[in-house]
Design brief:
Elements (H helix, E strand, L loop, with lengths): L5 H12 L4 H15 L4 H19 L3 E4 L3 E5 L2 H5 L3 H11 L3 E6 L2 E7 L7 H17 L2
């Protein structure tokens, strides 16, 4: 919706697809804002979705299951055993009480109930991944 030229749309998609981490996210967001002004919520969500996909690959998340009511992220056994569970639980629950935790076969599953959230679920997931990275670094 920002532009009508197909070449420009492709360039914007390429830039967004190049997001690898929070630093590149912020750089591309600033670049797009400088060029097109305030970005609409749908474009920002799209950018966060790209960031989320890259970060779950980097963290080597075992599985993601999404339905219309929840998103469940299952961590590998290796990742699960290297987490400060107390930090993870307390900090993630402070984001929203719609997160749930379960263990099965020594693998932690973090579930976000997506119905009735105050904002798009991707914002909570990005914040949760930041907490997860901090919880891993402490061990």
């Amino acid at each position: 919706e920002y532009v009508s030229e197909d070449d420009l749309k492709i360039e914007i998609h390429r830039k967004i697809n190049s997001i690898e981490d929070e630093e590149s996210f912020n750089k591309i967001k600033s670049e797009l804002e400088d060029r097109f002004g305030k970005l609409d919520e749908d474009l920002i969500i799209y950018m966060y979705e790209e960031l989320f996909e890259k970060e779950i690959r980097t963290l080597n998340i075992k599985n993601i299951n999404q339905t219309k009511n929840f998103i469940a992220i299952t961590l590998s056994k290796e990742l699960t055993k290297n987490i400060d569970g107390e930090l993870l639980f307390l900090d993630v629950i402070s984001l929203t009480r719609k997160f749930r935790f379960s263990m099965r076969n020594d693998e932690l599953t973090i579930t976000l109930d997506t119905v009735g959230l105050d904002k798009h679920f991707i914002y909570y997931l990005i914040d949760m991944l930041d907490i997860l990275k901090r919880a891993i670094k402490l061990n």
